[in-house]
Amino acid sequence: MQPDSAQAAVCERIELALGDITREHVDAIVNAANNSLRGGGGVDGAIQRAGGPEIMAECRKIGHCATGEAVITGAGRLSARFVIHAVGPVWQGGGAGEELLLASCHERSLELAREHGCRTVSFPAISTGAYGYPPQLAAPIALAAAIEALTRLPLIEKVRFVFIDEELHGVYEKALARLKASA
Ligand code: APR
To answer: Does the CB atom of residue 129 touch ligand 1 within 6 A?
Structure first.
């Protein structure tokens, strides 16, 4: 397979969906977490509420996660088997390594998923809420990072990006179409 058609095939393993990530029926859902793993609002609050206290108890034991990294816990009452807590960067204008950190937390999440035998993984739009990352800039980075990781992780069959918000869904759809066109 030529490199270009290989990338096009990898793009087919990415899906975009509108909905609540806590309702995903996948092996692992990714949480948009913070360094202290102490919970918060947004996706984090929704996951902790829907999954129950076991998730936070495990997070407290782990204690910390660096920006650009990810850690894994069980998923409590959720349908998923695991929650991967990824810490994206706070947007500071783009000159503080945000791009690399955003890419890295996606790559690390997928590597962890693979280490735990996951075949299907759902991501939220990490950093685009409380952390203020402009979605138009975050979308191509998040998607390209997932595509890059999938080329190395053939056992991961499906990566879904799930959006609670229709406008955000549209932004990621356009970015994915551009990446597909350039593959
Ligand atoms: N399902 C899918 N997407 C959701 C959901 C949900 N249930 N709830 C919110 N979102 C979307 C938001 O619309 C936003 O675009 O997730 C995106 C990420 O927003 P945040 O959850 O605020 O994540 P982030 O910007 O990475 O900020 C992380 O927020 O909750 C705290 O503890 C967390 O301190 C950390 C910070």
So the answer is: yes
pLDDT tens digits, 127-167: 999 999 999 999 999 999 999 999 999 999 999 999 999 99
pTM over 0.70: yes
Supply the pLDDT for residue 5.
Answer: 76
Instruction: Report the nearest atom of ligand 1 relative to the CA of 133.
Output: 25
Note the pLDDT of residue 3: 54
Task: Judge if the beta carbon of residue 44 lies within 6 A of ligand 1.
Answer: yes
Answer yes or no: 44 catalytic: yes
Domain total in the chain: 1
Is any ligand 1 atom within 6 A of the Cβ of residue 165? yes
Listed in sequence order, the DSSP H helices in the chain are 3-11, 42-51, 53-62, 98-115, 135-152, 166-182
Residue-number span of the structural domain to which 144 is assigned: 4-182
3-class SS of residue 41: coil
CATH of the domain at 23: 3.40.220.10
Q: To test ligand 1's pocket by mutation, which of 30, 38, 43, 169 has the most ligand atoms within 8 angstroms of CB?
A: 43
CA 169 to chain centre: 14
